[in-house]
Amino acid sequence: SKISALFSVEPQEGFAAPHSDVQLEAKFHPAKRVADNEQGKPRKIRCVLDPSYQQEPVELIVQGQGIDQPDGAVQLLEFAAEVREKKVQSIMFPPDPLGKNPTDHPWTLNPVVKTEVPAGMNYWICPPQLVVPPGSQVPLEIAYRPLTLTLREEDKPHPTESEENAGPQSRRSVRTPRQPLPEKHFGTIFIPTPDGSAFVINLEGVSLPPAAAQRLSAEVQCKTHHVQAVEVSNWLRESQRFKVQLTLVEPPNAGNEVKLHGVETFDLQPGATKDYKFSVYAYCPGTGLARVHFVNPKTEEFLIVEVAFKFVAAETMGSIVLSADCRQTAAHPISIMNPLTVPVTFKCECTHPDVRFSPPCLVALPSSESVVEVLFRPVLAGQGQAMLRLSSTELGDYPYSVHYEAKPAGLERTMVFKAPLGSTDNVQTIKFLHYAKKAASFTSRVEAAPGHRTPAQAFVVESKDIKAPAAPDDGVEVAVDVRFAPSCLGEIRSMLVLNSPDGGDYKALLVGHSQPPRPQGPIIIPSGKPGSADFYNPFDEAVEFIVQVDNPAFTIAAKTIKLNPRTNSAIAVQFKSDRAQAARLIVSTPKVSTPWIFFLKGTI
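-> structure tokens emitted (604 positions)
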């Protein structure tokens, strides 16, 4: 209709909530000078309310006057800018041939800026108010910031060679693909002046693809999953769904040594800002460059963000707690994933000498998970921290912090001795394993077992020099000889303790069973010649013993003898007879109820 060629209202339809207002924008856009009889004539614009049977239409009275444009009133400005970047141009206003404010009063002007293609957008901006002093010109800055691309030359459709050679009728039958992007952006700036004139600046813009990607940087520990956030803002007034391409640009031949993972679609509401997150995992120290390419398939708009990574060696992959008694083994497994297509060999080492590995050298098979056992067999009691490291050329280092506790060892073993009172020839060998990686010298002592009082010298360590060489992983055997010489009847318990600052402490429980004296002999004594019986005082004090024989053919020099503690004495015995006879030499003391008996045999 005639009125629609002069006036328009935006939006043309919509919804008004109860007790709320909706703002409508009325525009006057005459394409030519209006006839004099039509100038300023009021027009009606009706707004129909739905449902129409309940509400009367609302009418808006509008009128406008179209005037001729003076010479030089129309200018053309051309812009070229990268998409979402600002390009500014400055012109002098009023332009030639007017060249100045011809009045004696300052002009306060309100430029009207409109982006026509694409419609509804605001790609051009200029100051909302412009003051021009009398007889002067002022600069007017106009900025172009496109949010969408224009059609590039290489993206324009070109007819094929067969279409060029075809006739006109054939070419008309070729379907030209729809061009989703305009070749240029168009806009206008309309500036009316108080003297009744008006100036129009036609605007043309070419929106170019981004020349450089947005660049971020991050420092990431190796062997650690890192989540990287990239902030993305929706520059359009409509929702956008992006197709995301995540690419590792550098190093170019990383293979599986650097892994990137992120979702392939990303949605943004109009005007919203949200983080796109992706994960990165690197095995070895170095640098890397990841490129995130956001593409809107509908509009072909795109955004590129690059993230420069610095991969640093991890301080620790985790903490391992190891607790064991001395010379006992605690184990902890470590799993290693080999993402490569070739086997990888790991060197296993720890700062604590008592930590070893099974297997000693780990070979991780391609594209599989392998396990190495960390074995802790402490030698010395104590607690502290150590560092453990698995190293390979291909996958770098896997460091772990170790918190260890070595508890004192319990009893190594129990040795049982049996001997009659007065015996000194009961010797047993106690063997133990030395695990320290260096040679060690041990001192020995015998002390009372817990809850027992040990008589002095009941157990005696016969080995004077106890030394152990540096041990392999399975240890080296060390032997110690212990003699049991009881000084009382009954059970005797003691503790053998071996100590070394390099080899640790060893404890063995010694259990001795002291039995009544056993008969000894026979002692052969020829008639008329002296004989003797060797007697030992087993007690820890000087004791007087009673000596007697039960056959008068045998005589002794003294009926009592007194011996110092743990000393020997020969008891002289004589035999006189014309025939062979037998007798018993009896040695007794009130300290024990069973005497010592020596069988005597006299010969002719």
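The radius of gyration is 55 Å.
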